Structures are given as structure tokens and as C-alpha cells.
């Protein structure tokens, strides 16, 4: 990325006394308002706080976002060059210890250059061999199992009891994990993020479980995701294989959870979609795309770090400064966004799957899982959202946007047919045909 020449003295992070917290962009009822206020004041790049007292830059413009994501020579994923190391910026309970770790991590998400070029092909190979029809059948079966657990109750929290569970169970089965292993890994993963800096013992246990599963998959010669990673020659050791399997599962689970939950919010609360989806005039895919345009499941990507000083849009991004791409803001950039909201229906030109070397490796597979998860729920239950859509409480993650809770009620199946008024896909024959058409 070429540095822009500026006539005035460029702004440094240290020049800005009060910075907007990054979490304000994900927890606000109207995220667009927050991004637009930043855009009006600062232009395409704004100073923010990743956490209180931890400064960084937020890229708001579409062109700047695409350029940065594709420039992996100037902006890299390796947090060891963060210029905040040694300054005592992170408290013991900070949620950024894993994000800004100084010690090198053998993970694809933090790899750059030759290392990334070595670690990315195994991920692509492992995900490409997943049969989408089988993934669809697994998703449908697991969705039915989860719905069975709460349908007699007449009420549920669709985040905790459904959207947060379906993706993990599906990915775990595609990984070849046993149910007991999958449950324990989910418990550990949640605990690690809650524990922050005090997660060493949990991390050791997670590594032991996943490394053991990799070794067993190699011994058995399985052709699931773990089995492909277990024998791929690009890895130097089983630690890299285990870290990669863990990263695939965690990233897919979090993103799909947010995608499913937000799509349900739109369908259950927005008349533009609720009436048209239930009447068969819009496909669930249209609602899925609307989420990726309007609200974006990963609104702020994990930070990149500048390898040298560079001036962009009048801001001096110094070596080691963390730079966060605001995908949500880029999707809503007035320079690329139409004023007609229906222009986004069927349009998949959003940045929600990223760009450049770290682009999402399996958007098709993710769509299969998300689509079926939403469709199965709407087919089985006649749902009513029991909270004001304008008062939905959003989770406090600075990276993800999803409702903390999604309470619904529905008639008991004893009084309501299992398959009611939602005709989510009148032309659907099977998941294999759907996948092949897209």
C-alpha cells in the first residue's frame, strides 16, 4: 500500500486524548451511527481503543479496507511486533492477551508470508474434501435434536440453546470428534476466552485433547477434516496440526453462531423479510446476505500490525500500531453502497468473508450450515420474538456482533402442526442440489 502524501502534520495515536471504544461499534443498537460519527470526524481511518487505554486504528473506508487486507507486506497478522509490549497496557483480566500475545503462535490466523503460504493449503484441502450434502444432512439431524429438547416447553433462547450450539456440533462431527470430546472442547474454549491471561492450564488441556485426536485420526486413516490435516506434509509437527484444527473449529463456530442468530433477528423482527420469507417470495439466502450487508457477523477483523511507519488519510500509522478493518463500515461506505436497500438482495459483493491471503476458506460450506439451521427452525416452530427488536442486547465482543439472548415463544406441538406456515424453500429437493446450484 502506497503512503499518501500529506501537507499537514499527520495525526498520531498519541495525539488523541479521547478515543471511541471499539466495543461501541458492536454493542450499539445502531452500529451505523457509531461508524458514521467516526467517519465524519476522522475520514476513512479513525483512532479507537481496543480496550480502555489500548489504542489502535479503525479502517472505515471500503477502498482503504481492501487495500490493507491485500497488503500483507506492510500490515501483518503477527502480534509480536505490537508496539505496546512492555508498556503495561493490558490488565490481568484483559481479553486481549490472546489477541496481542508476544510469543509466536503456530497458527494460520497469525501467520504471514512464507509461513502462511505453507499453512493455508492444508486448510483448503481439508475443507474442500467435505461433502456438502453430508454436511447438510449432519446439520439437519443435529438441528432436529436440539429443537426436540425445547419444543415442548413453548419457549427458548435461540442463542444459548440453538445458534451457539449447532455450528460447534456440526464442525465437531466434520472434525471426527466423539460427542464427549466435542462437549469438553466447547467448555474449554469458552473458559479460555473468559479466563483471559489465566488460561494456561486450560490451553494445555485443549492442546492435549486435539493433538491426541490428530494422532488417532492418522492411525485410523480417517478422511474427515482432522484426518486430512493429520497426514498433510506441509505441517512441521502435530502442534501445528492441532492449532490449525482448533482455529478452524473456533472461527467457524463463532462466525456461524453470529450469522444464524442475526438472520433469525431479521426474519422475526423486520416485516420486509418476515412476510416475504414466510410467503416464499424471498429465499433464506436473501436474509443471510442481508445480515452480511447490514450488520455483518464479524464487523471488526482481528488487528493487523504495521511493519513500518506509513501515512494514510492524514494519519501516521507507526510501526507496531494495531490496525483493525471495520468490515461493517466498509460495506456501508457511501462511495460503494447504494441508497436502495433492495439492491443488496442477491448481491454478494460485501467484504464479510474478508479479502486477500486471509480470506475465509469455506464460505460455501458455511452458507450450507447457516441456511439449514435457520430453515429447520422455521419449519418446525412458529416463532414469536418476545423482546422489542429495538432493545435487543448485543454481546460485548469487539470483534463479533450477535444478540446476547434471543428469547422466543411458540405454540406447543400438541396444538400446532410441526410444519406450519413457514415455506422457507418451496423449490427445495435436497441440499446437494442447492449446493451445486450456488
UniProtKB/TrEMBL annotation:
InterPro entries: Cyt_P450 (IPR001128), Cyt_P450_B (IPR002397), Cyt_P450_CS (IPR017972), Cyt_P450_sf (IPR036396). It holds the Pfam family p450. The keyword Iron applies. Keywords: Heme, Iron, Metal-binding, Monooxygenase, Oxidoreductase. It comes from the Bacteria. Transmembrane segments: none annotated. Residues 412-438 are annotated as: Disordered. The keyword Oxidoreductase applies. One of its GO terms (molecular function) is monooxygenase activity. PANTHER family: CYTOCHROME P450 YJIB-RELATED, P450, PUTATIVE (EUROFUNG)-RELATED. This is Cytochrome P450. It comes from Promicromonospora citrea.
Amino acid at each position: 500500500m502506497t503512503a499518501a502524501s500529506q501537507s499537514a502534520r499527520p495525526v498520531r495515536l498519541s495525539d488523541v486524548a479521547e478515543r471511541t471504544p471499539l466495543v461501541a461499534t458492536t454493542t450499539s443498537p445502531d452500529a451505523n451511527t457509531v461508524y458514521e460519527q467516526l467517519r465524519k470526524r476522522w475520514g476513512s481511518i479513525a483512532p479507537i481503543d481496543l480496550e480502555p487505554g489500548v489504542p489502535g486504528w479503525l479502517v472505515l473506508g471500503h477502498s482503504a479496507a481492501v487495500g490493507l487486507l491485500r497488503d500483507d507486506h506492510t500490515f501483518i497478522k503477527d502480534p509480536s511486533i505490537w508496539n505496546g509490549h512492555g508498556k503495561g497496557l493490558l490488565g490481568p483480566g484483559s481479553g486481549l492477551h490472546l489477541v496481542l500475545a508476544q510469543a509466536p503462535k503456530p497458527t494460520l490466523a497469525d501467520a504471514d508470508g512464507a509461513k502462511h503460504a505453507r499453512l493455508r493449503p492444508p486448510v483448503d484441502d481439508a475443507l474442500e474434501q467435505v461433502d456438502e450434502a453430508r454436511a447438510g444432512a449432519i446439520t439437519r439431524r443435529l438441528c432436529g435434536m436440539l429443537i426436540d429438547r425445547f419444543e415442548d416447553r413453548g419457549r427458548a433462547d435461540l442463542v444459548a440453546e440453538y445458534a451457539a450450539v449447532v455450528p460447534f456440533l456440526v464442525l465437531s462431527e466434520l472434525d471426527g470428534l466423539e460427542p464427549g470430546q466435542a462437549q469438553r472442547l466447547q467448555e474449554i474454549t469458552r473458559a479460555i476466552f473468559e479466563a483471559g491471561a489465566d488460561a494456561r492450564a486450560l490451553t494445555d488441556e485443549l492442546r492435549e485433547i486435539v493433538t491426541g485426536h490428530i494422532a488417532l485420526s492418522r492411525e485410523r486413516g480417517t478422511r474427515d477434516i482432522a484426518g486430512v490435516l493429520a497426514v498433510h506434509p506441509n505441517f512441521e509437527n502435530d502442534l501445528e496440526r492441532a492449532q490449525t484444527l482448533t482455529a478452524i473449529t473456533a472461527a467457524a463456530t463463532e462466525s456461524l453462531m453470529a450469522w444464524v442468530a442475526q438472520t433469525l433477528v431479521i426474519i422475526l423482527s423486520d416485516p420486509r423479510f418476515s412476510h416475504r420469507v414466510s410467503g416464499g417470495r424471498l429465499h433464506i439466502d436473501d436474509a443471510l446476505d442481508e445480515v452480511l450487508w447490514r450488520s455483518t457477523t464479524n464487523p471488526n477483523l482481528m488487528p493487523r500490525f504495521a511493519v513500518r511507519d506509513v501515512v494514510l488519510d492524514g494519519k501516521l500509522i507507526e510501526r507496531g500500531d494495531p490496525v483493525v478493518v471495520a468490515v461493517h463500515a466498509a460495506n456501508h461506505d457511501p462511495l460503494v453502497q447504494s441508497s436502495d436497500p433492495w439492491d443488496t438482495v442477491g448481491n454478494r459483493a460485501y467484504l464479510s468473508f474478508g479479502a486477500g491471503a486471509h480470506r475465509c476458506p469455506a464460505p460455501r460450506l458455511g452458507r450450507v450450515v447457516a441456511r439449514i439451521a435457520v430453515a429447520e427452525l422455521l419449519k418446525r416452530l412458529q416463532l414469536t420474538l418476545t423482546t422489542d427488536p429495538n432493545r435487543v442486547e448485543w454481546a460485548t465482543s469487539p470483534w463479533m456482533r450477535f444478540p446476547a439472548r434471543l428469547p422466543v415463544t411458540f405454540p406447543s406441538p400438541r396444538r400446532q402442526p410441526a410444519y406450519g406456515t413457514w415455506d422457507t424453500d418451496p423449490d427445495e429437493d435436497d441440499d446437494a442440489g442447492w449446493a451445486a446450484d450456488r
